[in-house]
Description:
By secondary structure, this protein is an alpha+beta fold. The protein has 2 helices and 6 strands.
Amino acid sequence: MPKQAIIPPGTGVPLAPYVPGTLADGILYVSGTLPFDKDNNVVHAGDASAQTRHVLETIRGVVEAAGGTMDDVTFNHIFVKDFADYPKVNAVYAEFFPGVKPARYCIEANLVKPDALVEIASIAHIGKK
Length: 129
């Protein structure tokens, strides 16, 4: 099974050995995405809504670079630093997934940088429709 790295234009250098997405057999695996700018600085410190929007826009860029749309996303792994931000994350999330919602889970976790409030990883089925 050949696999293809998906790296949208303007993507910064990752903090660890990974790529933004990997496409294999029509399935796209999007790496855990944090609210980083291209230099791996956290954006929108203290604002869970803005960070969630940034993360989902970044994920959309990976999905589109692989030839898909957000409607192709079938599963999301969501990590929040504090469950107090859960309603804010959900409000923005609902904007990105207005139709049939992907399956998902959400857990509270420490994230790689202290100012990061949310991280999301996704799976999308971009192959045969």
